[in-house]
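Hi,

Apologies if this is the wrong queue. I'm a grad student, and the batch job for TRAF-type zinc finger domain-containing protein 1 from Podargus strigoides produced an output file that my downstream script rejects. I'm not sure whether the problem is my script or the file. Here is the sequence I used:
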Amino acid sequence: KKDVPVANFIMHEIHCSRNIEVCQFCGESVPKAELKNHIESEHVQVTCKCGMKMEKSLLKDHEACRCPLRPALCQYCDIQLTFNKLQDHEIYCGARTERCGGCGRNVMVRDLTEHPLVCG
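Support response: The file is valid. Your script probably expects a header line. Output copied below for reference.
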């Protein structure tokens, strides 16, 4: 959208009313000839692999940020799994122990970053 000079406004308004239509779903101005394609490509309902239904235009953001089946990495072992399984895996994975090279004690993986402060 841009400013239209006052002298050209009436011609602009006539042109727009003949050639442009506002999408009923998103409010975007779309050429009338492309409206059907716009609705089919942006607003058609699709189903994500997780089973959730949404507009096609929202699918990428859902898959990247909200889908429970999106890929996620464990903070302790860097294995990739689905986001909905991450919490249970990290509880188990963080509770594993590794022997400290400094003090010889077995330390839980989730505590390894803080252990050097108390090692000794």
